[in-house]
Amino acid sequence: MASRPKPTCRAAAAAALLALATALSGCSAPSPRPSAQSEAVTGARLQDPPELVSRHGLLRARIVVQRRKVDVAGRKMWALTYNDRYMPPTLRFRPGDTVRLDFVNRVRPYTNLHVHGLHVSPNAPADDVLIHIHAGRTYHYRYRFPKALKPGTYWYHSHAHPISAPQVAGGLAGIIVVEGQRKYLPPALRHVTEHTIALKDFQVRGDAVKTEGLKIGAPTNRTVNGQLKPTIHIRPGETQLWRLANISANIYYKLRLRGQRFRVIGRDGFPVDRTFTSDTLLLEAGSRFDVLVTGGRAGRTVLETLPYDTGPAGNQFPRANLATLISSGKPVAPVAPPSAFAPPEDLSDLPLARRRTVVFSENKAGTKYYINGKQFDPHRVDLRSKLNTTEEWTVVNTSDEQHSFHVHTNHFQLMSINGVPHHGHSLQDIANVPAKGRLVIRIRFTNYTGKTVLHCHILNHEDMGMMAILDIVK
Hints:
This protein has three helices and 37 strands. By secondary structure, it is mostly beta strands. Strands 15-12-17-22-19-20 form a six-stranded mixed sheet, with no helix packed on it.
């Protein structure tokens, strides 16, 4: 039903698969033409994705992957879809639940599924990202989540090496919500309106979402839940829970809600121990924030992404309007937001089994990317760690561009950035590594053994080698 890549002729196979990225679209596409956000219908009310919800401890669903002509930002376009949607269903379940997904693949040459950020086994038939599910095959994913799973926002996407970037950019990305976060809110806020703010971008080739020849810095259409510049409605004084998630393949978002501040209650699926406010939030590739937003006086304000530069060898992302928040209707009495939130989880005083250095680097042409001087090889173990131990890693970036550092299976605590102590109030699974900079993290390996991965979540970089295998052993 599924296969792991064979070790023979790996270099030739990788090159061939990169060339086969065009097969994801199923046919040749017309020459590219300029696209702009103004071309599509904008201003419609925000639509939250449909949901597949667990019942009595079980979520069972069928996920079909195929290329379809569907609505993308108000236009009919060819895209890669889960269950016939560019913005696919949200998977919603509780800690301790079992999830069974019958995963039907109808795209060439293969794909797979990664449940990003979730603390679950990296072994088949759970979150094994090294398998290939070929076109015409069905794979039966089975996940049993621990009762201690943290409530918050996660996501799912293709992790098919070396074509993860074209598949995710083509549309294969959706949201996961683990219930239980609201129990930390005061009673008056436990039933607030909730919105998914899933940030996906797409480039255009003819009447299709582009899946080959992707350039990170090329003009792109930034969407919220697959919509261009939707409107979000709130009453003056009303508090809402927004799940901000960067589920794009490569780009960064620096979010601002003009005239207001975000109150952060979660990061990367991990509830904070103390809430905090911020005028802006950087969502590097793959990251998420759960925030409370309170309606101001009647009127409109803009949710925007600000200009962001990832370094001399990186990309310059322009400012763009993402959505309009409309405050209207009968005012409600505002409720004081919480300060203390979830129980703290601190790794700083745990004994260390070992210290490591993990180096991210790239060649001058920006065509090859490395971890500790090596490009990804699915048949080589790069790091080996012991279950129930804690390690400290120094993540060094020798390149002139930022990288989005990500580890599967276990969250980590970000201790410092360029030598400056960091207090993030939660564990996380994504951290931005400055150009020519370094991070120090601590990570504890719990519950699960097996081969998992760490990588840059700028998926073009991952596909071009910036990934390594971590084997967790007893």
